[in-house]
Amino acid sequence: MHTMALTKHARQLLVIIAEAALEKSLVRDVKRLGAHGYTVYDVRGEGAMGVREGEWEADRTIEMKVICEAQVADQIAEHVLNTYAPNYAVTMFFAAVQVLRPEKF
């Protein structure tokens, strides 16, 4: 069996876990700051701010994943940290990822 070597391109994955009330603002911000796209999920969990079960609207939490250039991820994270983290439950982390179609990210 012949396998073709895939060309992979380095990108940054930025994961933002935040109160669902921020979703529209986060979508607007990540696009304005240079991300080409994003994915959002409804999630549940527990952390420093307590248990968030998502059983009522104000208790809902989202997870937003953004794959982009590293400098764009840094700009988004800095903006979210300065704008939302002081007043909302927000968690962020980065991971190095590789993509096959770099023009998408």
UniProtKB/TrEMBL annotation:
Coiled coil: none annotated. It comes from the Bacteria. Gene3D superfamilies: 3.30.70.120. InterPro entries: N-reg_PII, N-reg_PII-like_a/b, N-reg_PII/ATP_PRibTrfase_C. This is Transcriptional regulator.
